[in-house]
Amino acid sequence: MTYHTPVLLNESVDGLEINPEGIYVDATFGGGGHSREIIQRLKTGRLIAFDQDEDAERNVIKDERFLFINQNFRYLRNNLKYHGIQSIDGLLADLGVSSHHLDVQERGFSFSHRGGLDMRMNRRASLTAGKVLNSYSEEDLQGIFSSYGEIRNSKKLAHQIIQARRERTVEEVQQFVELIGPCMPAKHESKYLAKVFQALRIEVNRELDCLNELLVQCVDLIKKEGRLVMITYHSLEDRIVKNFIRSGNADGLLDKDFYGNIKVPFAPVNKKVIVPGATEIRRNSRARSAKLRIARKVI
């Protein structure tokens, strides 16, 4: 089984505009596809890779220029400081869920498999999808499905879950899929389930909060003329990245100095978002929703 097939491999690594003597970060190591391509373009430079999933450690690159850190990328600054690194030449992040997460049924990321409702990318964490479904209030569940899944009938869905769990604890993926059956629109079940599982996954892993924290740290860590390369897969994370590149913050609010001049730390390299071609999408269905944004540090 392939651990993970990297998306937009050459386009994203090209976007880093690698200095062979530079220091780079792969914030989402996974199967190591992007990291291996980066390493090939380095001479005396270094690559620091982050991944909170302990399974990713089996893919570690045996190279003195490579350092693997088994933590969430939200702890980027502290870890770099610990290793004596004050600034970097570029950072790449391939966001979202990996092929490995979807393929291993006991991880609970896919509605197509049997298994427990887990969805933790970091299995040392305490919050699981099962705990969310069995302990969150109806109001909180509605908010998650509305905000993170953009589900129109989120109120009905939350109510259905509350009613079902009064009779039986929600523990298994297939059990959950069956109990929310009345909420699914006819002929669009798979699309609906994808949104539901996305919402739960984002909540369990605090994905949007972590992304915000990563981007804020990049302002101080990436050197002037360094590169920020982000691959996103759904509108929520893409909106955050787009707003950050445009304004320097996730909300898209422009900061002005005393004289009214706009201060933005990054400038977009690609005016139009880069997407995979038809050939890559045929080889890797995950690529269908991928969007690549590249930015250059300007201040």
Describe the structure.
With 299 residues, the chain is α/β, with parallel strands linked by helices. It folds into two domains: 9-94 and 207-297, Vaccinia Virus protein VP39 (Rossmann fold, 3-Layer(aba) Sandwich); 103-205, Putative methyltransferase TM0872, insert domain (DNA polymerase, domain 1, Orthogonal Bundle). Helix content is 39%, strand content 14%. It has a seven-stranded mixed sheet, with helices on both faces. Strand 1 (23-26), helix 2 and strand 2 form a beta-alpha-beta unit. Helix 1 packs across helix 2 (33-40).
Q: In terms of topology, how is this protein built?
A:
Blueprint: H1 9-15, E1 23-26, H2 33-40, E2 46-50, E3 66-69, H3 76-82, E4 88-94, H4 99-103, H5 129-135, H6 138-149, H7 154-165, H8 173-179, H9 189-205, H10 207-221, E5 222-232, H11 235-247, E6 266-268, H12 278-283, E7 291-297
Parallel strand pairs: 1-2, 1-4, 2-3, 4-5
Antiparallel strand pairs: 5-7, 6-7
Helix pairs in contact: 1-2, 6-7, 6-9, 10-11
